[in-house]
Predict the 3D structure of the following.
Amino acid sequence: MLLWIEKGNAMLSFEIKDSGKSIQVDCDSVGLEALIGILTKYREAGGKGHLHLCAPSAGGNLLSDKTPWGKDAVGELIISMGGDD
């Protein structure tokens, strides 16, 4: 399932830090609201399958390609519940 934001410009980025030991999430209020809404709908639907949240470079419009500081961000985030693939 690929998800899109319909609310205009939002900032939501995930940056891998410390050689993969941590992930930093940067967002504005619209990006945070969208992420909460998507995760809530996914949980309410029973968490079946998995979600793909993508940046424009990966064919989506939910994530930002860059962090607020201009660093490359994760282009695709895949979320699953209960070990689904």
About this structure: The CA atoms of residues 29 and 74 lie 19 Å apart. The two ends are 12 Å apart (CA to CA).
